[in-house]
Amino acid sequence: MPLVPIRFAGKAIPMTVITPVRRWMRLPTRVILFIFQHLPLGVVQQLAFIHFARWILIRGDRLPRLDPDQPQEDWPYDIYAFTTNFNGPWDQYIDAFGRIKAVSKGLNMLWYTSAGFPGPWPMRLFKRYIHYFEVPVDLYYNAYPGATVRDIDGALKLQAPLQDFLTQTEDEMDDAEFAAHFKAFADKAAPMLGKTGSEPERSSLKHRARPREFSQ
Amino acid sequence: MTNHSIIDTKDVQALFRGIGLHWPKGRFFFCRYEDDAAGRKLLKRLGPLTSFHALKQKPNVVVNAAFNHAGLDMLKLDNDILNSLPDDFTDGMRRRADINGDTGESDPALWDDIWKEDIVHLWVGVYATDEIHLNAWCDDFTSWVEAADGASIVGQQDVSRIVSDKDVPVYIDDPGSQPQHPVLLEHFGFRDGMGNPAIKGLIEKHLDGAGALDPEGNWSALATGEFLLGHVDGHGEMPVAPLPEAFAYNGSFLVLRKLAQDVDLFRGYLTEQAGKLGDNADDIAARMVGRRRDGTPLIKGKNDYDFTYAGDPEGRVCPMGAHLRRANPRDSFGAQFGSALVDRHRILRRAITYGELVPHGKTQEEVNGKAGQGLIFLVLNASISRQFEFVQQQWINYGNDFDQGNDSDPITGLQNGDGQMVIPGDGDRQTMICDELKQFVSCRGGDYFFLPGINAFKALASESKGWRR
Asked: How far is A75 from chain B (nearest CA, A)?
């Protein structure tokens, strides 16, 4: 199982953003999170380059300890952690957050209680905020480094037609009949046939994760 | 109808408007100056440049100019100005080869000599109504440069527009694919220059199919600041631009790439694939491009410009991997988003071809000799990394956004030898997979340039010390 530093990992990129939430905002934050957990978030699912996105609130006086002997810390604010994985460049990912109205409305609500959150628009302030609170990821486990979410999605969709084709062609048949089955299968499979796998040596994707526009 | 007063078109270089068929001949000079004084003299000699506005009067000769980073540095501009230039521009195209996929046959080590080091400082693009006017201007200019101290022309490139002609066949094996009406062509024999964006206040004549698409299906012009610095961009912000404002105002970043097109290889490959797949070569080529030779899109739309992809999510009409769809995906990512995920990655193409058209039955060697044929790819955008480099890296050289995995653009993409293009069947036509794609188009050099506004160019040419260190 490959456990690789993110600089050398495959096609998925992790992002962790930890923002402070003032203590009197704890209850409203929990209400917001509750609402989101019980709402269908269709729009996020349509953005195929998002693997998953999760928001968690950790109380500042209940921070996890490695050992019962470790003294309990008491921070003046709560910790609001956002973790996600995506394919493609950082800028493209964050841009999509702001440009799709339904998503940006949702984000505005989710981060509403975070101290200093400027809102998803204008994008420059939003990006600066995300970038500022982004935590470097040192270790990252990737089960399929050579595949993106779309690749895996496609492979799963391919599974059923492939099984059908194999069952249909199990018995002896003449060439013409097999050709008919094969052509029908090829037509069904065609949209899922993009090549996957780790990027070849000669690839232009080495630099894709750097937030260039932001860095200027 | 529209109020154009926001943008002073007398301050914008003519290249923005698109120097069309009225100026079929051109010559690009790549100049160098040894110190700032010589540079200013050269700029003064070049000025005044032709503006967007002046193009309306149809002058006989159009002159535009742009600097690369070495060129601005040599003018001894203030460090604050140089440091405010974006990283992508400062690096230049050679150092960004990894991002643009310029490896293999496009490797900078194989580029034309002038692009292997920082030799070029200034691009001068001259376009003319005919050969006589062009030669007159160019002879004047070259003899002036020869006499000038410290300035030189290190490279030049003749360019011209190619128009299709019934007597010059460009098809491979289907004569019916030959364009019936005269259209602007590139060397593979397809209509060129169709997919350009509509820009608010600048180029708004045709919005449908050219601008931004909202979820309701209405087209509107793209924000000016996506292409022209100093104006509001698609995020409602001022684009990141060099300072001071007057330096960048009405300017833009110009990407210049000399793209050699291997016509023999292209025709040979398609003939071979056609034999294997049982289709005609011109049909396969059209599916790789996304349009027929005369510009008709594979997708049925209101006209050759106004069409959308959302109704074809599996690419059964226009393959997901087709060049057209990759370069400008429109609403490919879902009708409910319109073109919201595409608008920040649009580019203004101002390409022009070099070399003569290779007719059916002749080899490129017979027609163009060693010089070959291709395209001088000119792109204008407000951010090279967000617009040109993004399209090149994510959409041309990679296929994930289109469910195409690692597959790259069959026409202009980087090929590793095992590249493929999937053309899904539609029930009647069977699924075809073109395998072992070849490098039909390779980069021979170029750089990132800053195309200043007319007034900023004047200021750079002047002896005033305001912007100098």
From this structure: 37
